[in-house]
Every structure is written in structure tokens, then in C-alpha cells.
Amino acid sequence: MNNSDIQIKVCTGTGGIAAGGEEVLSSFKRILSIANIEASFQKKCSTHKVGCRGFCAKDLLVDVIVDGAKTTYQYVKPDMVERIVFEHIVHGIPVTEWQVDEDFHTFHGKQTKVVLSKCGEIDPEDIDAYITLGGYEAARKALTLMSPEEIVEVVKSSNLRGRGGAGFPTGLKWDLGLKIKSDIKYVICNGDEGDPGAFMDRSVMEGDPHSVIEGMIICAKATRSHHGYIYVRAEYPLAVKRLQLAIDKCYEKNFLGKNIFGSGFDFDLKIFKGAGAFVCGEATALMRSIEGKRGMPTPKLWRSAEKGLWDKPTVLNNVETFANIPRILLKGADWFRDLGTERSGGTKVFALTGKVKNAGLIEVPLGMTLRKIIYDIGGGIEGDGKFKAVQTGGPSGGCIPAEMLDIEVDYENLAEVGSMMGSGGMVVLDATDCMVNTARFFLEFSQAESCGKCTPCRVGTKRLLEILERVTSGKGKEADIELLEELSHFIRTMSLCGLGMAAPNPVFSTIKYFRDEYEAHIRDKRCPAAVCRDLITYSILEEACTGCGACKRVCPVDAIRGTRKMPHRIDPIVCVKCGTCFDVCKFKTIMKS
Amino acid sequence: MVTLTIDGQKITIRKRSTVLDAIKRLDIPIPTLCHHPELTPFGGCRLCIVEIKGSSRPITACTTFVRDDMEVITSSPQLEKLRKTTIELLLSDHPNDCMICERAGDCKLQELAYFYGIKENRFSGERRVYKNRDGNPFVERDMEKCILCGQCVRICDEIQGVGAIDFAYRGFRTKICPPYDKDLNCEFCGQCVAVCPTGALTGKMWALKGRQELNEVDTICPYCGCGCNLTLVVRRNEVIRVTSKTDTINEGWLCLKGSFAYGFIHSPERLTKPLIRVTTKEHSAFSVQQANPTLPSFDPSVSPLAKGGTEGGWGGDSKLQTPNSELFRETSWDEALDFIAKRLKEIKEKYGSDSIGGLSSARCTNEENYLFQKFMRAVIGTNNVDHCARY
Asked: In chain B, which residues have pLDDT < 50?
């Protein structure tokens, strides 16, 4: 990059495209060429599509780099492009009112970007951009200078653990893969990210696909494997497209195929599109899916390292795990290990969402406290509400209450408090969230996505969900909490795979930390957070109602009566508790109780 | 070889055996629903859980290899409680209509419910309900009774090599069905029916034929030279279904004919006495076409065999075979054999041995076929002898 260049970087991740990334990019191209910037300034002027940089709440984000000085604009729309070009690029005065605000800097300030370091910086469809930033150097080093044993040793001492959720030491897994003798071995990248609200793997695959491929090449060398698959859900079309493009470019440049880097090492890589089952994120189910069978977990008579895909030794890692590998090889195991805690090295990407001010994708060193993540990066609770809990680990995780905000995030600590790392979802809940309903929501997901193979998961989660539905609809019985606990314990003990075993976690943790909410639902038929529809009533505070009629107009069942400029009333018999009136009332006179 | 201890008993067993193999070898009772010794371990029903020293959670015996010095406990209050809950959950999604179930008394789930004393269910709730009946002619598929043990899926894939059915849908709605949830349209070997532990899969011909006063008669399948062992289930002198035992030469596996094609036994069209043609071909009142009735066309809504043996089965409405036909007259074996011998002799004398040919049948035994060719060669004096299975 030349400092005297003009560069425009437009986010074209899935979020960016949804916010109009493609249109903004073409607007920039059009206006820059009309204005003939290159000729009049004698500078090279380029526009780039880049991956997601995490802060999707402010999309569309556009970087304008003039003479090395970077200015980031937020909420950019196509009609804003003209002004940015003329004021900022032509006249050299950035458009201050459209620049990112303080939140953007709070959000990024405390992060440590390793995996996401290239996301949002480089054009994911341009292999040269990746190579310019040191791309494929690690693979070259691994293939030409290092023995498989040396690579495994580096990964082992880096303390890298599987980022898919279970946290199995990656070096150990590779070591097992290396030691097994077989004519054919496979390397698989698990890109079947299915947790609701989690999109870290997608962002990496869309924003920096080459680092995943490079990690896989290194893994192939380390385990003496010559065949690889990237398993991506078909619901990630952009990730599939960019990965395929990246693979094609790699074959062109001989980073994949026969005799890579002239080292005599061969490695072929293919994409396999998953059909959208959550359970296919489970390693054995994923392998069955590639084999063309139904994605169902198989009992672990054999370890995958011994008999995996088509009964051949297989090493399977998550997208984020692979993306870490090139960095570890280049910067050294010590650097990576020192980033994290004693038990797990490096950083972890989290999808921070829910009632937090700055929602988005963040990357922090392992060992950072939840408080720091939520308050220092997330900027605290939205609308200055009261923090209630943070749900980590997606549908298999648990809810962590306020008194545990100071735990340092790593695999063991999260498991200890009844949650889990999972793939890295982090949903912040405030006083307006009902914990019973939250548990019900996640159970609904786990139940719908159960593969149906084992009884505890298939029928057990269904019955768990039915009891939770009973409780949230005010029909809970006195012994329901105990029944929930017993059934949850049963499912955890008896399920065949990790999905089933972890499915009752939301129930366990909410009963453990928020038992009073369950009791309020069951005994008092009351939802303390006023969320459960069957347990709340809407009423209008008559003395404050201005009679504007906004609520009356939107009520779908005509439950609101009243004459104009006079206080209105809600007929509780007709009301279906949809909450639309609550949302539209500007004077906050509609009460939920 | 590996030596381990199960419930205090030492056992030495081949490496790569499962803990369940060892338990079965010791003849220790342990409940299973999805296990089948000839199929790959499934680990779905979770009933064969055992406690293994050093492991914090119960482990399914069917999916664990034996290790040296392993200490296994197959029954404890905690294990039995977990097993009971598993059965309760299965029953919570089951019609529990044992009163009218074809398999009552011969159902593994019913037996477990009986042993674990499950009368009321703490988990009763929504149940899978399927209104459409599978219209195939042989296999009654009542998927409401299915416990998704997957034995039918595995046997179809691993033993039969057909793969006509698999798991479909997800979560609570998971169901075993043919592709696109259509009617079963396979070779109808009936293997799935044979392994089903509940009343989910039964023969359509079995319906309402009775569940008590049954006798079992072991015999050999007459259909081909494989000689599969059959066990006829007989009630009031009527064969009401056919099964096969696993300790036989065919290990309990049968094909379509062995499983379902027994309707001929009680068919009124079955020949029980010899017939002699009374009208010559030229004077026959029937054309050739009429004399060779075509098989009834395949109608998926009505099973030809479901009508039962007494209604004729595949035989159609041929008048040729009925004793009352004007073409034939009933006779004694003595007369029939004399007649055949006389005519054969006449033909042989007049036209020579090679003017006679003999066709034998796959449904005869080896010995019968041997005798037949011997008869053709030594008595008739011709090599014109062949076999129906060749064309």
C-alpha cells in the first residue's frame, strides 16, 4: 500500500450487503470516475470490498483512506457517497457528522484481533491482497522447512484449543491424527455454524477465507493428509462463493494441488455444502453428512482420528481454529500462548448481542472478564437498563447472573458456572427478559434440531419444552421445578451426543440462578419481567393518556376503545396481548403487568 | 483377548468385542431395544447403560469396546431409575393400545413396561399422530408405535442392501419413512418387520388372525434351493404368519416369498388331488388366453394378499385349476400315475425318447430334483431335462 493512495473500503459481508454495500460500492466507483480523481490528484485511487469488521449495528461502514489517514463512516447510504467524495476526497475535509461515533472506538479499543485481523482490511476475493499481508508464508514455511512433528509441537505448545466449543487441545488432536497410519487421511474444516445469533465463522469465511485454507494446508502437512473438505452450511451462500473463489485461486497459484511450493506435498481441498441441520456441527454427524447419509451422530466406538470420514483417520477443526494456525506459525507459539490464560492460549471471537449497546462481533484474549466484555467493549446495557444475565454458548449454553460477571472467560470457568464456551455466542439479557421464557426459547431450538436418534434428546427435550411451555403459560404445577430438574439431569446423563447432553443447560442454569422467577410463574402466575403473554395484562394509565388514538389504530382486534382526546381503555377480554399498542404509545401510558 | 469383570464375574473375550457382547455372553439380563447382533451398534435407545469404574457417567454397553481390567456394573438403583425414565419417555409418545395391537405379547416395549411397572406416565404430552396408512401390499407401517430404534433402517441397508427407508424429519417429528414420505415400494423382503421390536411394523396379512393359542411349526421354505428355515405360526390349523429363528442356517433372514407368500397354503384354488384333462385342446371351450389368466394388476390401495389365503391370493380367477372345471376331472393318484406311465410309454415308442422333455422346479428339494433327472435319463432315456429357475 502506498501512503499517497486513496482507498475506499466498503464492507461487503452478509451484513454489509444487506445494508446496501454493493450499491454504495458502485456509487463510489461511478462518482470517482466521473470526478476523474486519479487524473486530477495524480494518485492511485481504488475501491475495495472488504469483509465484516464486526460492528454490524453501524452498517454500512466505509473506510476512506487518504494519504494513509483512515476515516470511517457509519450508516452510509448510496446518496451519501457524492458528498463524501467531494468534501473528503476532493477538498480534504472529512464529513464529521457521518463519521463513526465514540461507540465505534469503545467497541474496537479493547479488542485484540488475531483471527479477525484481516477481516475488514483486505478484499477477500483478491488473493494478492492476502499475500501482500504475509499470506501463505506460514504454509510455505510449514511445507518447505518444517516436519509434521515440528508443526504439531508448535501447535501443542501454543495451547490452542478447539474453537468449536468443546475446547479439545488442537495440538493433541493433530498428534493423534499424525500417529495413525493409513493410506488415506482427511482434514475437515467445520463451518457448519448453527447457533442462533452466532456468525463468527461466517465472518471469517466471508472476510478472510484464505487464512482458513492456509490453516488447513498446514494441518494437512502436520497430519500427512492429502485430502480436505470444508463443510459449510448452504445458508451461507456468500461464504461458499468466496471460499470457492479462494480455492480456485489457490489451485491457480499452486497453493493447493500437486507439489505445493515445490515441496513435493500434495493437498486437494473441496467444499461440501451442508443442508442446514444444526446437529451436523457435531463431528460424527458432519462426517456422515459428507458420506451422503443423514447427519446423525454415531457412537464413539472409534475416535475420529482413527476412523472418521469413510472410516479413514480424520482431523476435524473449526473455522476459527484453522484461521489461528497461520498466525501461530508466523508469530510463534509463545506469542499465542501468552495472549490467553494458562489453560488456553490465544483469543476468542464472540458474537455479542442482546440488550447491549454495542452489538457485534468481538475478539478478545481468553481470560478477559465478562464485565469487561459487556461494559468496556459492549458499552453496557442498552437504554441504561439493569443487567440481568448473559447467555453464552448458544442453545447449549447457560445463563450467567450478575454476581458472576467477574469470572474470566475460558472453557473451564464457563463450564464451572453451568454454561459453556460453545462457538462463542453471547446474549446479554436485562430486566425486561424473562428467564423461564429464555430457557423455553433455547429448548425450542434444541428440540427442533434434535436428530431424533436417541430417546433422551428426542422425547426428553420435547417433554422439557412442554413443561416450560406449561410454566410460561401459567399452567405450571407445584412439582414442575423438580420435574424439570430431574428430566434435565436425565437428558444430560443419557444423551448420545453433545447436542443432547448440553440441551438442558439453559434450564439448569436458569433454575439455579433464577429459581424465584420459576416460582413466581408457578405459584403467583406472574411473570416478573412481564414477557410471558399468558401472564400479563395491558392497561392504559388513564390520567396520562392523551387520547391520541395511536394505539387504537394499530390494535389488530379492536380491543382499545375511547373517543379522541379522551383517555382510552383496553378491553382485557378482547385483548390478545400482542403488545403492538405498547410499542407505539409515545407517552408511555400503556402498562404491562 | 481381554479380561474384564462384569457384576463381579470375570470374563475373557475377544478384543474389539463390545461390553454388551460380554454381558450377553455371561447371560446377564440387560434391556435393549435398538441392538441387533448382526447390525452395527446404534446407541439410540440408551437402555443398555452400565456403570464402568472410572467413568463419571453411565455408558451404553453396545457402543463401548471391552478393555482389560474394566469393572462393569449392569444394574444399580441409579441405572434402573434412568432406564425406567427412558421407557417412560418412550411410552409417553406411544399409542399404548396394546389391547388391539397385533404384537401384544410379542413386543419388547410392552415387556419392558411390564417389568418396570409403568402404569401412569409423568411425562405424558403431545404424541405423534399419522393419519395416512401406507398403501403397500405387505408391510403394515404404524409409525405412531415406532420407537425409532433404527433396526429396520440398518437391516434394509446393511443386510438387504436396499436402503428403502431412513430417518426423516427432525426433533420430535423424526420418522422412519421411504423417500419423500411416500408409500413403501421396495422388494418387500419383510426383514424390517422381522426385527421391529414393537408393533410398528407388522405383516398386513397378519391382521386379526389372533394372538393366542398359537403353535409354532419349524419347516423349510419350499420356494427355492436356499432351504431357509421357516417357523410357521399356526392357530386353529391355519398358518397365520411366517417367521424364522436366528439360530438357523439363514440366521432368521427371509425374502419376500418366505415372509409373505404363504397365501397358497389355504387357497381354495390349491390342487390337492390329481386332475386328468377330459377335453382335448381342440374341443376346449376356453381359448388359450382364457386358460392362462394374467396376474391381477398391482393396485397399491388394495393388497391382493391382504385378502388372506381363503380368498385366493395371486391365483386370479382361473377356471383351469379348479376341480370343477369342465376341462378336468379329479382322480386318484393310482389312476393318474398309471395314465402318465401309459402315455409316456406310448409317446416314447412312437416318437422316440428325445420327443419327451421334463421340467423340474426350484420348489423341489435337491433330492427330488436329482430323482427327476435320473428318471428322465434312465427311464425315459433323454437329456431333455431343465428347470424353471433357468427362464
From this structure: 284-298, 303-323
Give the mean model confidence (pLDDT) for residues A117-122: 87
Distances (CA, A) of B325 to B190, B283, B317, B340: 36, 14, 12, 20
Distance from CA of B93 to the nearest CA of A (A): 8
- Measured from the Cβ of residue B110, the count of other Cβ atoms closer than 10 Å reads 20
Tens of pLDDT along A401-443? 999 999 999 888 888 888 888 888 899 999 889 999 999 999 9
Q: Which of B176, B151, B148, B242 is nearest to B203 (CA)?
A: B242
What is the three-class DSSP state of A315? strand
Q: Which residues of A touch B128 (CB under 8 A)?
A: none
Q: Which of A249-253, A448-452, B209-213, B379-383 has the lowest mean pLDDT?
A: B209-213
Cα-Cα-Cα-Cα dihedral sign, residues B74, B79, B85, B89: negative
Chain B residues with beta carbon closer than 8 angstroms to that of A462: 93, 125-126, 171-172
B82 touches chain A (CB under 8 A): yes
B314 interface with A at CB cutoff 8 Å: no
Q: How far is A299 from chain B (nearest CA, A)?
A: 6
Q: Does B52 touch chain A (CB under 8 A)?
A: no
The region of weakest confidence among A91-100, A228-237, A318-327 is A91-100
pLDDT above 90 covers a percentage of chain A that reads 51
In chain B, residues with a C-beta closer than 8 Å to the C-beta of A487 are 85, 123
Is A140 strand, coil or helix?
Answer: helix
Sign of CA dihedral A572, A573, A574, A575: positive
Q: Give the pLDDT confidence of B169-223 residue by residue, as tens digits.
A: 999 999 999 999 999 999 999 999 999 999 999 999 988 888 888 999 999 998 8
Q: What's the pLDDT score for residue B302? A: 54
How far, in Å, are A161, A363, B289 from residue A153 at the CA level? 14, 25, 83
Name the residue type at position B358.
G
Number of neighbours of residue A585 by Cβ within 10 angstroms: 21
Sign of CA dihedral A380, A382, A385, A390: negative
A418: alpha, beta or left, given left = phi > 0 and alpha = psi -120 to 50?
Answer: left
Q: How far apart are the first and last CA of chain B?
A: 51
Please report, rounded to a whole number, the percentage of residues in chain B having pLDDT higher than 70.
Answer: 88
Instruction: Give how far Cα A82 sits from Cα of A95, A97, A186, B101, Å.
Output: 11, 15, 51, 77
Cell numbers at A119, concatenated: 477481516
Amino acid at A220: A
Query: A461-472 vs A515-523: helix axis angle to the nearest 10?
Result: 60
* CA dist., res. B64 & res. B13, Å (int): 14
pLDDT at residue number B301? 60
Report d(CA A520, CA A263) in Å as an integer.
Answer: 68
ipTM for the complex? 0.86
Please write the tens of the pLDDT for every residue from A63-115. Answer: 988 888 888 999 999 999 888 888 888 888 888 889 888 888 888 888 888 88
Domains and CATH numbers, chain A: 6-101 (3.40.30.10), 134-339 (3.40.50.11540), 347-430 (3.10.20.600), 435-523 (1.20.1440.230), 537-592 (3.30.70.20)
Mutate to test the interface with A, among B82, B89, B91, B177 (most CBs of A within 10 A): B89
